[in-house]
Design goal:
Number of strands: 7
Helix content: 40-55%
Number of helices: 11
CATH class of the largest domain: Alpha Beta
CATH superfamily of the largest domain: SPOUT methyltransferase, trefoil knot domain
Largest sheet: 7 strands, parallel
Bound molecules: S-adenosyl-L-homocysteine
Radius of gyration: 28 Å
CATH topology of the largest domain: Alpha/beta knot
Strand order of the largest sheet: 3-2-1-6-4-7-5
Structural class: alpha/beta
Order of helices and strands: EHEHHEHEEHEHEHHHHH
CATH architecture of the largest domain: 3-Layer(aba) Sandwich
Oligomer: single chain
């Protein structure tokens, strides 16, 4: 899936710098700048792009004379706006929210998300050139986000929705064998601490389900095993029955 970010008539160098940085953060394929009001190659833009300049210097930032040109090779385009129609019947300003858009986008192999000017957003003509109008849900009393913040939210949602890689995916997950071993210790511990058979069963079921409801890494599971194994060992040396009888 090819992802293109299009910014139309951008007015702020700081915003553009942040957007370049975001394009690298979220593995965008191209940043299309349509008729900018500033110099996109300025030092200020580069400064705010930080290590995103790599994206810029790799030729993935392109300047276009028109929105038509920027959208030429795109299968699905979405214009974005804070201003949407609720009940006036203005079809051009009927919007879907970003979650819906992400689900739709999954069916296409190239998409573009189009953002407007800081001062006036996108014109009606520009919105008419996109396949969809998309709104990022925000306080209805003031839903207008800063341009680069809107880009950040949009790219993050797409990144998550399109299941792009994350460093967290490299963490080794717990395997079945370890879970079964944890189960054995849960059974053993439940037997050691329960008052009666009913109680033992409740402890056992609750803890087994509890373990399955967390996303455990292999290292966390290993530490958990050591922890309960040692508790079990201690309890066997000093059974609870003796505590009960001495305290009651
Ligand atoms: N006063 C302008 C505000 C533009 S904000 C207007 O009336 O439209 C700059 C750009 O950020 C917008 O063109 C849009 O692309 C994006 N944006 C800001 N808030 C948004 C929101 N809630 N949903 C979707 N896009 C938003």
């Amino acid at each position: 899936m090819k992802l293109k970010v299009v910014v139309v008539g951008i007015e702020g160098e700081i915003n553009l710098g942040f957007i370049v940085r975001l394009c690298r953060n979220f593995a965008v394929d191209e940043l299309a700048i349509v008729k900018p009001s500033i110099n996109p190659w300025s030092e200020e833009v580069r400064r705010f792009a930080a290590n995103g300049v790599v994206f810029m210097d790799s030729g993935r930032v392109k300047v276009y004379e028109s929105l038509d040109e920027a959208l030429k090779d795109v299968a699905l385009s979405a214009c974005t706006s804070a201003v949407v129609d609720v009940d006036s019947g203005d079809m051009l300003r009927k919007a879907v929210n970003f979650e819906e858009f992400v689900n739709i986008a999954k069916n296409y192999n190239s998409i573009a998300v189009v953002f407007g000017r800081e001062s006036t957003g996108l014109t009606r003509d520009e919105i008419a050139k996109c396949d969809l109008l998309v709104h990022i849900d925000a306080n209805p009393e003031y839903p207008v986000l800063n341009l680069s913040h809107a880009v950040a939210i949009a790219l993050y949602r797409l990144y998550k929705g399109l299941e792009k890689p994350s460093v967290l995916n490299q963490v080794e997950k717990v395997d079945e064998e370890m879970i079964r071993l944890i189960d054995r210790y849960i059974d053993e511990l439940s037997g050691l601490v329960a008052r009666d058979e009913w109680h033992r069963q409740m402890f056992s079921i609750m803890f087994k389900r509890f373990v399955r409801r967390v996303t455990l890494s292999k290292q966390e599971a290993g530490l958990l095993l050591t922890f309960i194994r040692r508790i079990a060992r201690r309890l066997k040396l000093e059974p609870l029955e003796s505590e009960h009888s001495s305290s009651s």
